[in-house]
Every structure is written in C-alpha cells, then in structure tokens.
Amino acid sequence: MDWCRYRFRSVWRLAAPPDAVYAVLERAEEYPRWWPQVREVASVDDTTGTARFRSLLPYDLVVTVRAQRQDPAARVLEADLSGDLEGWVRWTVTPEGSGTRAVYEQEVEVRARLLRALAVPGRPVFRVNHALMMRGGQRGLAAHLLSV
Q1: 100-114 as b/e, with b when 16 or more CB fall inside 10 Å?
Q2: N or C: which end of the chain has fewer CB within 10 A?
Q3: pLDDT confidence band for 1 (50 / 70 / 90)
Q4: Average pLDDT for 120-134
C-alpha cells in the first residue's frame, strides 16, 4: 500500500436545481466565499489557477489546478492537480428528487514533504481532516445556494 495515495468520494445532497449547483461549482475563484476551508483561489490563465486550503490541521496545502473538462450539458467538472497534491478531482452534478446530488471524487498523491514524512501515523488524521473539509464545503454551499 502506498500510504501517500488517497482516493476520496463525497456525495452532497442539495436543495437547489442541478444547473444552479453546477453554476456555483464551475466558478472556482468564488469557492472561498462559501467554502471556509478554501482560503484562497487565484487565476493564472483561462484554464489554470492556484488554490490554498486548510481544514482542521494547522497546515496549508497549495495546489495548481488545471481544468480538463467543463461540460455544462453533462454537469461534469474535472481538473488535474499538482503541487502539494498531485492527481485529479471531479464534480458530477445530477438531479435527485426536487434537488441535486453532487458527487465529488478525488484521487491524489501527497507530495508535501512534511505530510509524506507523517504518512503512516498521520493517515487516519488526514482522512478525518478531509472529511471535515468536505462537511464544511457542503454546509457552505447549501447556505450559499439559499442566498443566490
């Protein structure tokens, strides 16, 4: 087992139309407005940006995000990640009842030196840290969708 590799999957159920959810998710530069753990997003060019995030642990992760797929018809967003994390991330937004099901998938390898050094003892803490970040994002998005 490679202790520095992670695969995450989160399902967010939201009381808003799928197109409205997709419209918010495709504007990554606005994530810090509603996702507390996303501290900063800066555009580099039309398809690339940098993001800095921190959850419970007192450690910032910085990644370069390069858009690979923005498909409003299928409501799918995909990007490659490099920097402290290397891999990919994908949002898939679908209707569910009167609301939306947003599935977040991520497959990454930790590249940050400190986190690699703590890979074995820290793995359970890193997974909890990620879960708390995702919970914060889901709550923030739900509240944001009520205000738009």
Answers
A1: bbbebebbbebbbee
A2: N
A3: confident
A4: 96
- SS3 breakdown of the chain: % helix, strand, coil, rounded to 5? 35, 45, 25
Question: Cβ–Cβ contacts within 10 Å for residue 86, how many?
Answer: 17
b/e sequence 46-75, b meaning 16+ C-beta within 10 Å: eeebebbbbbebeeebebbbbeeeeeeeeb
Pure H helices in 26-85: 31-34
Residues 132, 26: contact at Cβ < 8 Å? Answer: no
Tell me which residue of 99, 110, 125 sits closest to 11, measured CA to CA.
99
Residue with tokens 């940050």: 112
pLDDT of 112 strictly over 90: yes
Would the pLDDT of 9 be above 80?
Answer: yes
Report pLDDT digits (tens) over 42-72. 999 999 999 999 999 999 999 999 999 999 9
Nearest to 21 by CA among 9, 8, 32, 34: 34
Amino acid (one-letter) located at 123: R
